[in-house]
Write a structure and sequence with these properties.
- There is one protein chain.
- This protein is α/β, with parallel strands linked by helices.
- The protein has a single domain (about 5-244), classed as Alpha/Beta hydrolase fold, catalytic domain (Rossmann fold, 3-Layer(aba) Sandwich), CATH 3.40.50.
- The protein contains ten helices and six strands; from the N terminus they run E-H-E-H-E-H-E-H-H-H-H-E-H-E-H-H.
- The chain has helices at about 20-25, 50-55, 70-80, 110-125, 125-135, 145-150, 160-175, 200-210, 225-230, 230-244, and strands at about 5-10, 30-35, 65-70, 85-95, 190-195, 215-220.
- The chain has a six-stranded parallel sheet with strand order 2-1-3-4-5-6, sandwiched between helices.
- It is globular.
Length: about 240
């Protein structure tokens, strides 16, 4: 039995980033994409994880399989914990429960680095977004193609989107889902690039070990966006999981 597949993108992008993966998926599957609040064509939803999750929840069919990448993966985890009646299983790509380092969590970006991104975004949002996109291509054998694809799918940090994008960076700085991860009962498949310099593989390994039903696949030649550099391989894993 297949399930509706809902794709949730990461910070600063739009749902168009999923185009290569969608092209690789079996067209008989029901696949939907959602723009995160204030991204793409979506309206803003405030500056809290709860308000962003509510905005996504309003668009979810029942029994959805959420495919979340980066910030989208954190939203997917949050929704799976709070609304198990709407979320049947998860695929998490480039995922982490906590994006920044703390005294008890080192598998993440240094807090000062993200703080610098937030300050830079206030001064020169376009340049900051380009830097963030460039980081996502590091460690990938198809780095140039990945960066080009991300750039083409970026939400412009113009007057209509700048506030929401800044709020999204605030979410990345503050979300910590480590306490709720053991409560997530849905089956979870984790896909991660071994060369991901934005989010260490150790974060995905922690999720696989801590989730009650989590399995991890690591792509040796990929970075933070393996669904762009390895769309066929990611599609095959997602299709099998959706029909399981």
């Amino acid at each position: 039995m297949s399930r509706p597949i809902v794709l949730l993108h990461g910070w600063g992008l739009s749902s168009s980033v999923w185009a290569p993966l969608q092209a690789a998926l079996d067209p008989s599957l029901e696949v939907r994409t959602i723009d995160l609040p204030g991204h793409g064509k979506a309206t803003s939803a405030g500056d809290s994880l709860e308000s962003w999750s509510d905005a996504v929840l309003a668009q979810l069919p029942r029994n959805s399989m959420l495919v979340g990448w980066s910030l989208g993966a954190q939203l997917a985890l949050h929704l799976a914990c709070l609304h198990p009646d709407r979320v049947s299983r998860l695929v998490l790509i480039g995922a982490t429960p906590c994006f920044v380092q703390t005294d008890t969590w080192q598998a993440a970006m240094p807090a000062d680095t993200l703080a610098d991104f937030r300050r830079s975004f206030d001064i020169d949002p376009a340049a900051t977004q380009r830097r963030f996109i460039a980081l996502q291509g590091l460690g990938d054998a198809r780095r140039r193609d990945v960066v080009n694809a991300l750039g083409s799918a970026a939400t412009p940090p113009d007057d209509a989107h700048k506030t929401a994008l800044a709020e999204g960076l605030g979410l990345l700085a503050n979300i910590d889902l480590r306490k709720v991860v053991p409560e997530i009962r849905q089956p979870v498949r984790l896909l991660h690039g071994a060369g991901d310099t934005l989010m260490p593989t150790a974060a995905a390994e922690w999720l696989a070990d801590t989730l009650p039903d989590g399995r991890l696949s690591v792509f040796t030649d990929a970075g933070h966006a393996p669904f762009l550099s390895r769309p066929q391989d990611c599609a095959g894993l997602i299709e099998g999981f959706a029909r399981d």
